[in-house]
Amino acid sequence: MNTEIVRYNGKLFMVIYKYSSGYWEIREKDSKFNVQLVHESEVQAVEETVTF
After folding, report:
1. In the sheet that 2-8 helps form, which strands lie side by side, from edge to edge?
2. Residue 7 pairs with which residues in a beta bridge?
3. Which whole number is the average pLDDT over 34-41?
4. What is the share, in percent, of the chain residues with pLDDT greater than 70?
5. Strands 2-8 and 44-51
6. Close Cβ partners of 40 (under 8 Å, ≥ 6 residues apart)
7. 4, 34, 41, 46: which is deepest, by most CB within 10 A?
8. CA atoms of 24 and 8, how far apart (whole Å)
């Protein structure tokens, strides 16, 4: 499974879920507990992809 990596507020996050409303659930890459709900316009794509 490939996981998309994005940058939000200067930190790297993994995309958990993309809602049809344009909001995304993202989780900080090095934390299991820091989950954010953000609009897709607030994140920047990162070339890195993680495979699990």
Report:
1. 35-39, 23-28, 11-18, 2-8, 44-51
2. 12, 44
3. 97
4. 88
5. antiparallel
6. 18, 22, 23, 24
7. 4
8. 11
The model's pTM is 0.82
**DSSP readout, 1-52?**
-EEEEEEETTEEEEEEEE-TTSEEEEEETT-SS-EEEEEGGG-EEEEEEEE-
CA distance 9 to 29: 13
> Please, are residues 22 and 39 in contact by the beta-carbon 8 Å criterion?
yes
The Cα 51–Cα 46 span in angstroms is 14
Structure tokens at 50: 């993680």
